[in-house]
Amino acid sequence: MKVLIVLSVCLVFAFGGVCTLAILLTRATHFNVSVSDQDHNATDYKAQFDALRNQHEETLRKLNRLNYSTGCALCAAHWIHSGGKCYYFSTVKMNWTQSRDHCVTLGGHLVIINSKAEQDFVTSNVKKTHWIGLNDLDTEGHWVWVNNQPVNDSAGFWIKRENGIREPDNWTKGHPDGEDCAGLGHPGGETDFWSDAFCFLEKRFVCEAPAAV
């Protein structure tokens, strides 16, 4: 009888050990499956991320190509875009030197007009005389832009008066130094032409900067 009891107890412990082992094996299997699922999910997430990144980069490339082909570009606040450039039309008045320096602080320069299209655009946005980036401060009669390039006479828009006198005339009666800086129009007159003026006069001004594409 005692032998049977001992055997029964041993069987109980053995069965319990088998059950415990089975539970441990089941948990291990579940753990391996869970880790495998996580690895699979991580691989899927990485693939999705890579796909989204590639789509984003391709979208940026398409946007840049679109900007280039359509002339659509970015300008800072209060600047106007035209022809791949940005233009700033001031609301305050400064003398020519101050205007030149202020345009530089804004990231540009006083406007350089290279064509009739640009002239028409600039003058269509002003109603009063404005400084432009043209002067003959270094050598009288030798007009250069703020980038030191000489003005193209064929592309110049100097006014010719009714009396036959053509600007620039370097009028010295108002000041012995004469008129060495150029602006659009003259006070109280039309603005679709250039005229020379005393550089110390305070006028509004036009800045120019390349557009960000």
From TrEMBL:
It is found in: Cell membrane. Keywords: Disulfide bond, Lectin. PROSITE patterns: C_TYPE_LECTIN_1 (PS00615), C_TYPE_LECTIN_2 (PS50041). One of its GO terms (molecular function) is carbohydrate binding. Residues 82-208 form the C-type lectin domain. Coiled coil: none annotated. Its main location: membrane. InterPro entries: C-type_lectin-like (IPR001304), C-type_lectin-like/link_sf (IPR016186), C-type_lectin/matrix_domain (IPR050828), C-type_lectin_CS (IPR018378), CD209-like_CTLD (IPR033989), CTDL_fold (IPR016187). GO terms for cellular component: plasma membrane. Pfam families: Lectin_C. It is a single-pass type II membrane protein. This is C-type lectin domain family 4 member E-like. It comes from Sinocyclocheilus anshuiensis. The lineage of its organism: Eukaryota, Metazoa, Chordata, Craniata, Vertebrata.
